[in-house]
Specification:
Elements (H helix, E strand, L loop, with lengths): L7 H11 L1 H4 L8 H4 L1 E2 H8 L3 H13 L3 E6 L2 E6 L1 H12 L3
Antiparallel strand pairs: 1-3, 2-3
């Protein structure tokens, strides 16, 4: 986790996923607040290709900051607030 460079895109995604209903349009399948947001929605919001969004979302999920869940065959991502708070505490302590 500490070797991963900080990315403005990833920080924006984490911020948006704090309140996905406020930052993303409704999706045809899945509830934004409960199920999360698809990579397509994140890519559209960032203005990047889906493959770029997939890379950033995958990295955040690998770090444990996002939870991935399959809804009708599509992966939805939502923020893991407990894990995000743990990481924030580590940095506050001077890590």
């Amino acid at each position: 986790m500490f070797r991963t460079p900080v990315s403005d895109l990833r920080l924006r995604v984490l911020e948006w996923l704090r309140d996905p209903v406020a930052h993303f349009p409704p999706q045809p399948e899945g509830d934004l607040a409960e199920d999360g947001v698809t990579a397509d929605a994140v890519a559209a919001r960032l203005g990047v290709p889906r493959t770029v969004a997939d890379t950033h979302l995958g990295l955040l999920a690998d770090l444990g900051l996002l939870r991935a869940r399959s809804v009708r065959g599509r992966t939805h991502y939502r923020r893991d607030d407990m894990r995000t708070a743990e990481v924030a505490r580590l940095f506050e302590k001077g890590w």
